[in-house]
Amino acid sequence: MMVGSDKQKTLQIYIPLVVYTLLLLFPFYWMGVVSFKPTSDIFDLDLNPFWVQRFTLENYLYLFENTEFASWMWNTMVISIVSTALSIFCSICIGYALARLKFPGSDFMGIGIFLVYLVPPTLLFIPMAQVIGTLNLFNTHWALILTYPTQLIPFASWLLMGYFLTIPKEIEESALMDGCSRIQILVRIVLPLSVPGILSATIFCFTLCWNEFLYALIFMSSGDMKTIPVGTVSDLIKADTLFWGSLMASALLGSVPVAFIYSFFVKYYVSGLTASAVKG
Amino acid sequence: MEKVNDNQLKSIPEETAENGVTRRQIIKTGAAAGAVALMGGFPNISSAQNKTLNIVRGTYFIPGAQEIAKQQAAEFGKQAGVKVNADFLNWTDLNTKIGAGIQAGGIDVIELWPVQNHLYANNLVDMTDEAEEVAARGGGFEEYVLNSGLVNGRYLGIPHGNNAGTIAYRISAFEKAGVKHADKGGMDMTWDEYFAVAKECKKMGMPFGQSLGHSLGDPIGFCYPYMWASGALEVGDDGKTILFNTPTFEYALNKFVQAWKDGYDETGTSWDDSSNNRAYLSGKISSTFNGASIYYASKRRDDGGELMNDTHHMLMPKGTAGRYHEFGTQTMGILNNSKNIDVAKEYLKWWFQPENFDKWWRIQEGYQLHHVKNLADDPMWQDDPKMGIFKEIPKYGRLRGFAGNPNEKASLAASKYIVVDTFAKAVQSGDAKDALEWGERQLKRIYR
Amino acid sequence: MNSGSIQSENFLDRESSLGVLLMLPGLILLLVFLAYPFFLGIWLSLTDTRIGMPGEFIGLWNYTDLLEDDIFHQTAWNTMIYAVVTVPFKALMGLGLALILNNKIRFSNPIRAFVMLPWIVPTALSSLGWFMIFDPVFSPISWLMIEMGLIESNVNFLGDQILAVTAICWVNIWRGIPFFGISILAGLQAVPPELHEQAAIDGANKFQRFVNVTLPQIKGILMITSLLSIIWTFADFQLIYVLTKGGPANQTHIFGTYAYQIGLFGTEIGMAAAITLYMFPILAFFSIFLLRYMRKTA
After folding, report:
1. Span(s) in chain B for CATH 3.40.190.10
2. Checking CA distances to A39, which of B140, C10, C155, C289 falls within 20 to 30 Å?
3. Interface predicted TM-score of the whole assembly (ipTM), two decimals
4. From the list B92, B278, B424, which residue is nearest C248 (CB)?
């Protein structure tokens, strides 16, 4: 009914899809091309910039031989995973409390948590650095693991609260009658039913952790403690010269893990958002 | 609740257990208490941190220089028995790091750009004795070091010279444009003459290029000297009177606007410190203001020395009020909130020993100008006569905010890009008068 | 927990106490790492603090002074354009993407993941890609247009006022399309197919069905996504910092970049805090709007 023939389908779906894909992915294609070119070719204006004339892996090799790319990857991974886990734990608690429980200040909390989210990192980072300094966390993974959640919890709690609201209250009420405690209900009933919601919040948090730049720049001071975005920018821009090939190589390699995760979980991501945002 | 916790913590790598907090403990105490327990675990790290020396420098364009500095830091660490973190940051992020370090700690030794020793005077350890030791050993500091390195008669960091910028050009293009002795370098030109060459070169399809975007290196390095040479200052020596919108400067800025159309690549309004390097190296422009990095890169190209042989340097052209460069010394300073001031001092004393410092300095082939007189006659300078002109630059050096002090107001003016934006506005709109009035208004707000 | 187990059961079952307990872990983090720095930030904005120099209380001086700063005016104006004007474009293009992805397509999962790339790749890195695409000398777009004979010299993407604003807005839109697309897609999938079938039986054509059935269903998500996007872009920093740093002549400065410039390069962190705090009422306005909307639908 929706789509008549194959021809029509091609016209209405695949052609626009190709256009969108080109539009959205062109920069990555471009970055890929640059990353496989020797530096002299990148800056040769006579060559077609859209194609690789002399294929080389030297930019990638440079990353692994002359920078601490492997450490950056590891740091980014550890920090993103732990920080995401911490944020999701806090957000599940907050989301459930706000969705189901009445407690003193619960109305205010909902708004309050959302409002603090509006404080931009550009304002926070100097005072934040003072806190990190006082706790002696400079140049440790903890500096980022503990600060990233402030960017994540508000949105993730809101998302999860929406999701929890979609779970029929009756299920919980009957479990309460059966003598389950609230915590048991949360763990045994609500959480298993909320997997898509939790997954989409997780992916969301992970992405933001992976992308963060400013805090990572300030709180991490030695080369082997940097994250990918910071390491890329600070090690591959040397004085007034940019190492284009390796910059692009690093940008692409740094994106692979997130892209990989998305390709697996995008389905849940969508359904998680669906439930919490539409019905919530 | 336990179950959730367990899932969460499976993803924490074992590494975190080192702090004396096991997963079990965190799970048992719940997250809130867990956070506290973690805090309890931190002193472990902090006690180790007391023996860590954090050194922050800018990235070096010359890979060898960075490599040596890094090795030397490690070597010192081994000798002194401390852990050394040597971090090299791209220039634009360096300020951020310094700012955070001053406010919150975490940095011991820091490489400061000119002016920053004045700007952060309250936060730096007095290094006068150490600096004078270095000077005495090297036959005294160069004149420019005395002018820019001293803050109220004290050294707040040991000066180590700076990389200077000047005009780089293509000999062949200049010769075609009728410039005599272009192959000898070091021509003594006026701005009018320079712009006339630009016009000829643009006709040949090889305009001049100049960065006028928001970038703290080349745009400032070009615009300030042009302003000074045109008989204008941001502020007089009283630090109050704005001497920016002068008739001579208006006349000169109009000339620049015309020259921009006739002789420059007009996309320069978006260029940053790196754009002119790329444009020059790809043969798109025939002259630009830059550090020696263009020439250094041309030496290392596999074009049979073609570009290198065709590149030479000259000083900034002269204006009605003389010739100027924006130049001062860098210093290696110690933040006074450092917990390891003694170790940091040891490190700097050690690094400034000729056997360490000179190795680092020589590999840069003149890219980094020397700080002490003895190095002026160093054999290194014989290696490449084309670098000789860089030694002349300091004579014409002034700091931002001249004739006022290079203080926080001068830095605010630079960070707002007032002078640079005056140029950018002028070439965008073609209205030099209007741009100058804007600049003057802005400067008055800063120097009130 | 052993001896007092009965008591603690009661304790944990009381909604009020359990509620507070569940809020605690998150709240502690937010208090220490967000609320505290935030109030410190507010305090800074009321002082003339510079980096490394303790300041004195000067009341609202920073705020009133900014009102006379024409770079700040320009910054505020740029931010509005950057955050608000781009939203309809993101929404429309996101909607288009969602409508396409909502069909049965081969390889739909990998395709969905791929088109998400602009949103998930670190902005610091993807902006560098765009930085090179817009390069005054090496821009492939300029190259192509010259090859095709459309123009004679390179396009001054980031150096001309109108082009520069367009360019940064475009990169912002580019980054936002996937987020809108995937969120709207989530909304579309929640539309019960029966509604469409019913409407089709009633004789509604495709467009009518879209307006009468689909649109009301995704209105909520469209609204929420737009507001979130406005809030996020208002506080943006990376993208512009990489592409123009506010240049040429401040024509692309937004709150974040201007504050950063004044605070870190100009060392006036009190003033910088005031600049960022000017964002707060605007953001608060949008979020209260958002919260009220969410309440109503919930």
Report:
1. 51-159+330-370, 165-327+398-446
2. C155
3. 0.87
4. B424
Confidence band of C66 (pLDDT split at 50, 70, 90): very high
Q: How confident is the model at residue A113 (pLDDT cuts 50, 70, 90)?
A: confident
Instruction: Give domain status of residue C13, yes or no.
Output: no
Interface test with B, best of A47, A232, A240 (most B CBs within 10 A): A240
Contact A85, B13 (CB under 8 A): no
Check CB contact under 8 Å for C291 and A17: no
**Are residues A93 and A232 both part of a single domain?**
yes
Cβ distance C133 to A27 less than 8 Å, yes or no, reads: yes
Q: Which helix (H) or strand (E) holds A44?
A: none
Tell me the longest C-alpha to C-alpha distance in chain B. 84
For residue A61, being part of any structural domain is answered with: no
Q: Per-residue confidence at B87, pLDDT binned at 50, 70, 90? A: confident
The CATH architecture annotation of domain B51-159+330-370 reads 3-Layer(aba) Sandwich (3.40)
Report yes or no on A200 lying in a domain: yes
Bridge pairing between strands B331-334 and B109-112: antiparallel
Whether the per-residue pLDDT at B360 is higher than 90: the answer is yes
CB B61 to CB A239 under 8 A?
yes
A174: pLDDT strictly greater than 50: yes
pLDDT tens for B371-380 read 999 999 999 9
Residue numbers of the domain that contains A47: 1-56
Q: Residues of C at the B interface (Cβ-Cβ below 8 Å)?
A: 24-25, 28-29, 50-53, 68-71, 134-138, 154-161, 164, 244-250, 260-269
Number of domains, chain C: 1
Task: Compute the average pLDDT of residues B244-272.
Answer: 95
Residue with tokens 């909604």: C15
Confidence of residue C26 (pLDDT cuts 50, 70, 90): very high
Same-domain pairing of A126 and A210: yes
Residue of A221, A224, A225, A227 best to disrupt the B interface, most CBs of B under 10 A: A221
Residue A229 is part of a domain; what is its CATH number? 1.10.3720.10
Please tell me the predicted confidence (pLDDT) of residue B55: 94
Rounded CA-CA distance A87/B117 in Å is 41
- Both tokens assigned to C198: 């019913």
- Work out the average pLDDT over B35-60: 59
Q: Which of B15, B45, B55 to mutate to test the interface with A (most CBs of A within 10 A)?
A: B45
* pLDDT value for B5: 40
Task: Enumerate neighbours of B (3 or more CB pairs within 8 A).
Answer: A, C
Q: How confident is the model at residue A242 (pLDDT cuts 50, 70, 90)?
A: confident
**Nearest Cα to B418, choosing from B439, B403, B436?**
B439
Instruction: Write out the two tokens for B183.
Output: 């192959």
Is residue A218 domain-resident? yes
A102 with A217, same domain: the answer is yes
- Angstrom CA distances, C26 to A165, B75, B380, C38, stand at 20, 44, 61, 16
- State whether residue A279 sits within 8 Å of chain C by CB: yes
Per-residue pLDDT, averaged over A51-65, amounts to: 93
pLDDT of residue B76 exceeding 70: yes
Tally of domains in chain A: 2
Q: How many helices (H) and strands (E) does chain B have?
A: 20, 13
pLDDT attached to residue A243: 85
Considering the domain boundaries, does residue C161 fall inside one?
Answer: yes
Phi, psi dihedrals of residue A241, rounded to the nearest 5°: -130, 135
Q: Write the residue in B39, B49, B90 that is nearest to A234 by C-beta.
A: B90
Mean per-residue pLDDT over chain B, rounded:
87
Q: Same structural domain for residues A198 and A78?
A: yes
Tell me which of 3.40.190.10, 3.30.70.100, 1.10.730.10, 3.40.50.360 is the CATH number of domain B165-327+398-446. Answer: 3.40.190.10
Nearest CA in chain A to B62: A238
DSSP E strand stretches across C32-166: none
- Indicate whether C11 belongs to any domain: no
Question: Do A35 and A79 fall within a single domain?
Answer: no
Residues B314-355 have pLDDT tens digits of 999 999 999 999 999 999 999 999 999 999 999 999 999 999
Q: Does A81 touch chain B (CB under 8 A)?
A: yes
DSSP B329-386: --EEEEBTT-S-HHHHHHHHHHHTSHHHHHHHHHTTTTSBPPSBGGGGG-GGGGS-GG
CATH of the domain at C86: 1.10.3720.10
How would you class B392 by CB atoms within 10 Å of its CB: exposed for 0-12, middle for 13-18, buried for 19 or more? middle
- Tell me, yes or no, whether C15 lies in a domain: no
Which residue range(s) make up the domain with C289? 70-297
A175–chain B Cβ distance below 8 A for any pair: no
